């Protein structure tokens, strides 16, 4: 019984037996409670059903049928007895006619008088569940019983619990068998674990020690791989065997040399010298043991140092991971802000990504207006509701952005309680707890500042956060500069092309101002049907440039007063395609070019140049078609005078669904009918 594996197995077995036993006991108690609850519910439901049948028969005057009902119910094997007795305990009606007139058991009478409707009893070695339900006097019964009597009788139903007991016995047996099976499986599993991971390595180690004790050094080597500890132990043991083998071999070799050199000495001298030598060897072995212990201590100290170095390395790895995470965030932010040239989109993207990267609650970007020394709110998140997104703030001392812009340096305020020179309540309506702010610089000149406030986890901003924000601000400054240059380049292109359109219109008094009016109608209609701002911008550019293709049309044909021939019509219908070819080298007008090419397509597919239909025509081109047609009808032409406003609206209404998108046409008609719409003011002389 002194074996380690037997002790471990015994203790584990006792613990498992106790755990499985407690689990089995709890399951049996749960089964017993469930069966009792089932008996109570079944008894109550059966009693209610029988009582309702009795009340119905008594109300119908069929009192004789009550006894037959009880007799039929008594035939069920689970029903031991069913009877009706009065408040004195005398049986009035029973499934067994011989009981009529007898006194019920004292338990039934006491249960009724104490108000207990459901209870269990043991009788003649069997279990029963009794249900007592009073039958109350009702107005339908007043013909046979006076109204002064409240209870006509008590229905008593006795259910046999033998069937439930058999179920409980079966459940107990199943629980016992499953518990025993589980216990056997656990014991076998743990026994296998102990034999493989504990007993087997120990046996191998003991066998190796036995070989070592016999001097069988070659057979004393052991290799254990069942666990890291056993592997380490086997390695240390093998090293010790090798060291001991070397020491013994050296000792034997020295002793052999000493014996050869002293073989001529007398026998007693040899014995004395051998004893002295043996004593010296023993001392050497003791010294070697002491040295071995010192080496073991040195190895332990080395292990401690290695553990310390590993901890330092882990800390450095953590710092490196944090740095990599921040560099990754900066890289992703740089990709995001350099992916758009729209300034408004750039501002909002910059603020939102910066707030998420720094895990803050508030962030906003201010653009400096040097003339008035004020700043415009260009993008923000986390500000209180009601803040004007286009508001301007006067920069003055006490403001965080004022300090950063004035000094052209980033600012860290870990706690506003320690920065008395700055106001705690921002003029944007929020309370500042901890703040970092970095200026936006272009060639060392400030153009604004980005401010991040109040970390989401309620901690303070650190110097690492400030450094990260400074890097983001440098990237943002470059992105803002590039976006502004891109917008200036776009505007230069647009101004150039628009000048060409103006040159065309200037040569024709009849079309002068046509593009400008079409632009106003188109933009107003696009806003009415709630198109996106970027879509409205494309539509505005397309409306200005929609007739640029007329550069390639003969001016004489454009101003021709006579009826146009088929060849003339075909030539004029080339101007959308010519306009597309003119704008093709301008990459940023690619989508605008598609609108211009489609603005003479018809909703029913009868337009030109590609005969597109329905939704295949862009929404901008469908809007431009209505606005262009309206202005063409209400303007003077070489071959006719301007048509009236009402006539033009009637014509658009009649062409809805064929020439025009019906939804766009109806929206235009609704816009024209609104109070304040004056088409004449849209035309310029």
Tell me what the structure shows:
With 685 residues, the protein is of the alpha+beta class. It folds into three domains: 4-169, 2-Layer Sandwich (Beta-Lactamase), CATH 3.30.450; 338-487, Beta-Lactamase (2-Layer Sandwich); 507-682, Hypothetical protein af1432, CATH 1.10.3210. The chain is built from 19 helices and eleven strands. The protein has a six-stranded antiparallel beta sheet with strand order 8-7-6-11-10-9, with helices on both faces. Strand 6 (360-369) and strand 7 (374-381) form a beta hairpin. Helix 1 (4-59) runs antiparallel to helix 4 (162-213) and helix 6 runs parallel beside helix 9.
Give a summary of the structure in a few sentences.
This protein has 685 residues and is of the alpha+beta class.
């Amino acid at each position: 019984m002194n074996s380690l594996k037997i002790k471990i197995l015994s203790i584990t077995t006792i613990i498992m037996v106790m755990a499985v036993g407690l689990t089995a006991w709890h399951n049996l108690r749960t089964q017993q409670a469930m069966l009792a609850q089932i008996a109570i519910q079944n008894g109550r439901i059966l009693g209610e059903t029988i009582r309702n049948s009795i009340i119905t028969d008594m109300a119908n005057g069929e009192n004789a049928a009550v006894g037959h009902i009880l007799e039929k119910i008594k035939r069920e094997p689970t029903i031991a007895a069913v009877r009706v007795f009065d408040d004195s305990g005398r049986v009035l009606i029973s499934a067994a006619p011989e009981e009529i007139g007898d006194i019920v058991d004292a338990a039934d009478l006491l249960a009724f008088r104490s108000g207990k409707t459901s209870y269990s009893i043991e009788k003649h070695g069997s279990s029963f569940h009794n249900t007592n339900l009073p039958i109350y006097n009702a107005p339908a019964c007043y013909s046979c019983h006076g109204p002064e009597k409240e209870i006509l009788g008590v229905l008593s139903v006795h259910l046999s619990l033998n069937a439930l007991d058999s179920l409980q016995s079966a459940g107990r047996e199943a629980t016992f068998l499953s518990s025993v099976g589980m216990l056997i499986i656990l014991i076998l599993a743990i026994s296998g674990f102990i034999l493989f991971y504990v007993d087997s390595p120990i046996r191998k180690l003991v066998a190796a020690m036995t070989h070592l004790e016999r001097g069988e050094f070659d057979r004393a080597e052991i290799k254990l791989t069942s666990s890291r500890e056993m592997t380490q132990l086997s390695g240390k043991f093998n090293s010790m065997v090798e060291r001991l083998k070397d020491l013994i071999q050296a000792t034997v070799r020295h002793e052999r040399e000493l014996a050869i050199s002293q073989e001529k000495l007398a026998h007693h001298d040899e014995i004395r010298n051998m004893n002295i030598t043996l004593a010296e060897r023993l001392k050497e072995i003791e010294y070697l043991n002491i040295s071995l212990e010192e080496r073991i201590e040195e190895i332990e100290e080395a292990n401690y140092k290695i553990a310390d170095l590993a901890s330092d390395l882990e800390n450095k790895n953590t710092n490196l991971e944090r740095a990599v995470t921040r560099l990754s965030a900066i890289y992703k932010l740089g990709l995001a802000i350099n992916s758009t040239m729209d300034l408004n989109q750039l501002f909002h993207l910059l603020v939102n990504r910066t707030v998420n990267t720094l895990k803050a609650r508030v962030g906003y970007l201010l653009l400096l207006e040097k003339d008035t020394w004020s700043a415009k709110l260009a993008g923000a998140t986390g500000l209180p509701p009601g803040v004007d997104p286009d508001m301007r703030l006067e920069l003055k001392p006490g403001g965080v952005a004022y300090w950063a812009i004035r000094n052209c340096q980033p600012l860290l305020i870990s706690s506003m309680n320690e920065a008395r020179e700055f106001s705690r309540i921002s003029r944007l309506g929020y309370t500042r707890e901890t703040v970092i702010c970095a200026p936006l610089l272009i060639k060392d000149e400030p153009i604004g500042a980005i401010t991040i406030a109040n970390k989401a986890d309620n901690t303070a901003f650190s110097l690492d956060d400030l450094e990260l924000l400074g890097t983001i601000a440098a990237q943002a400054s470059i992105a803002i500069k590039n976006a502004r240059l891109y917008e200036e380049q776009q505007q230069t292109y647009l101004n150039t092309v628009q000048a060409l359109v103006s040159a065309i219109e200037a040569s024709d008094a009849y079309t002068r101002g046509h593009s400008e009016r079409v632009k106003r109608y188109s933009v107003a209609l696009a806003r009415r049907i709630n198109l996106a701002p970027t879509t409205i911008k494309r539509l505005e550019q397309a409306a200005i440039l929609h007739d640029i293709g007329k550069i390639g049309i003969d001016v004489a044909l454009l101003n021709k007063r006579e009826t146009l021939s088929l060849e003339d019509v075909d030539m004029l219908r080339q101007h959308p395609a010519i306009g597309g070819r003119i704008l093709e080298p301008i990459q940023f007008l690619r989508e605008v070019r598609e609108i211009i090419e489609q603005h003479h397509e018809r909703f029913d597919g009868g337009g030109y140049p590609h005969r597109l239909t329905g939704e295949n025509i862009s929404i901008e081109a469908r809007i431009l078609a209505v606005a262009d047609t309206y202005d063409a009808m209400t303007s003077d032409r070489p071959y006719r005078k301007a048509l009236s406003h009402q006539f033009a609206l009637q014509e658009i209404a009649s062409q809805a669904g064929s020439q025009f998108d019906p939804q766009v046409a109806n929206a235009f008609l609704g816009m024209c009918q609104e109070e304040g719409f004056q088409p004449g003011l849209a035309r310029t002389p």
